[in-house]
Amino acid sequence: MDAAQQEATARARELQRSWYGEPLGTLFRRLIDDLGLNQARLAGVLGLSAPMLSQLMSGQRAKIGNPAVVQRVQLLQDLARQVVDGSVSAAEATERMEEIKKSQGGSVLTNTTQTTNSSGAPTVKRVVREIQSLLRSVAAASEILEAADALAPTHPELAEFLRVYGAGRTSDAVAHYQSHQS
């Protein structure tokens, strides 16, 4: 790899860190380890080709272009945390991965098994994650914060919304969402 390629890869990984919280190679390797997958199976669950997954992992590509794939990554991260903490068995994880693979992503009010509570309504956390995913698929956290700073003098509530959902923690966004419901 020549110096220009190394520089491009380093830049792509830095962009990934700002968009996804860490380089995708690190994130995907953790999912592979925690969920007992190989790269081909992870690519299949995410709805990516194996070469595309490899390019994202190596930093040859920086961004996941499809918001549905970004959502599947988030769902797999949630599932991996549950597997690691022991609240979901390996067999249950395999079933859930099939559901995730079939999920289309998309609207905030997606009504599928893993996104709803017993009444059939989306859970607060799922709605918040959908909003975060949508914002983060449109712009990097740094860009969202820049927009929030520009809006703050004239539209402080909108600026707060962008900061909380576009660059903040999910727990803070859930608290914000709950505090603004009638």
Automatic annotation (TrEMBL):
**Recorded GO MF terms:** DNA binding
Output compositional bias ranges, type Polar residues.
Answer: 104-121
Ordered alphabetically, the record's keywords are: DNA-binding
State the residue spans of region: Disordered.
101-121
Superkingdom of source: Bacteria
| SUPFAM superfamilies, A to Z | lambda repressor-like DNA-binding domains (SSF47413)
Q: Which protein is depicted?
A: DNA-binding protein
